[in-house]
Amino acid sequence: MASSKQLSSDEVEALMGGLSEETEGHSIIMEGEKDVRPFTLGSDDLSVLGDYYALRMINERFCRLARSVFLPMLRVQPRISSFPPEVKTFDEYSQNVETFVSLNTSRMEELKGNSLLVVPPDFISLLTNSYYGGSVVRSLRRAAGEFTATEQRVIEIVSEGLDDALTAAWKDLTSVTFSVTGREENIQFASFVDGGDTVIVCSFLVQLPKSEPATFDVIYPLQVLKPIASQLRSRLQSEAGDNDLTWKQKLEQAILNIPLTVTAELDRPKTTLGRMVTVKKDDVFKISVTDGVKIFVEGREMFLAEIGQSGQNVAVELTKRLKNKL
Prior knowledge:
- It is a single chain.
- The chain has two domains: 200 residues, CheC-like (Chemotaxis protein chec); 67 residues, Surface presentation of antigens (SPOA) (Roll), CATH 2.30.330.10.
- It has nine helices and eleven strands.
- Helix 2 crosses helix 4.
- The protein is elongated.
């Protein structure tokens, strides 16, 4: 008789009991096995996005675009750099963040999810002080409480400007539109994701002249980025526009358009220090152009040439390229 593939009642009961006790770290150890680690079925794979290569490129592009957001407030061009993205639960992130903080939730309509912009209150106070004529030389320390109406206006300007920068930074990978949907001031009341949900934390450092650096974070839920995980693992950028030049062509064109200074050296006459002391206007130094003219490009000897004429202008005709001088 063929054996039945259905589980017996005892097997079903044992299976259900094991799933319900998974938090106790139970695991089945086969005879002869060592160093067995427990595994929770259904847990998120934290490496689902690979090495985050494309996300790091997006963050670097965002750093360049975000400078224009802070420039009108700081009245200086800040240096902004990004840290590698981190994967953690939202509870783990919240434990390392001040309770009183500026939280700005933005909707990513194309990905059917939200992102979260987190800005420390000290940075908000510094931006507000500088925006209305103050100095950024010293760091401002702000007591926990609530933001003033003026600070709320600065938060609005910053969050909307950074959302526009994020939209532009994501454009080459995929079309994502960021729009602010809500603001909060207490991390405990943030209705962003559940505490146990996994998030991608992108941290940014703003370096200010003669002042302590400031930081802010952009957080993405892992579940929101999973549909584009393959694109985020890719090292190739999507082509925006069929008629647009490729990045390589643009770089080549930019390099070929770099201006260079070309100098023709006729001769290097020698004289004495005594004559140089007595030299005056209309004195003549004789030169000899017998072996051709040396052509220098940015100060480096590159060609030999002969003196000639082109129309009404004196010109040189290149006769030899000095390859050993490249």
